[in-house]
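Form 7-S
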Amino acid sequence: MGDGRSMPLHMLSPRLQAAYVMARAGLSTIASEHDRLALAERMLEAVNDVGLQVAEKPTRTPQPEPAQIPPIWPGNPVTLAQLIPGRLVQRYTEEAGEEVRTDVPCCERRITVEARDGLETDLVCPFDGLRYTLVLVDDEDGGLWANFTVVGEVVMPRRRSPTRRR
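Output:
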């Protein structure tokens, strides 16, 4: 307590109040930006006059944003290990009248959906148990991209084979 840096709270408060009264003297209002800056300067001088030091508030280190999962573009091969939740897999489509056909990313089986820009639907691959959100997007060349976003795995029931009697 003798080093002058740490003071009990009850001693600090009257000293800060005295510094504020000293700084505020002569200022009738603090409405304008100029008045607020003048008060701040006077407050710093008054704090120094009463023997206190102003310390900067420690800044928090900003948390890094989670790493983005890179998309997989059309034509690139895909493994099941790469199909993690949040991954975007873009695939080519093939027009078939009012519908388009595209390959599911996990097993490259063909699916057919309505050919409508902006169509968004959820689907599950019954063979691999992966759930996707499919969005059809205009490719600005007269066709559509199929954007599959991996949602996660689904528990799929298995059919039991009939038991044999012995």
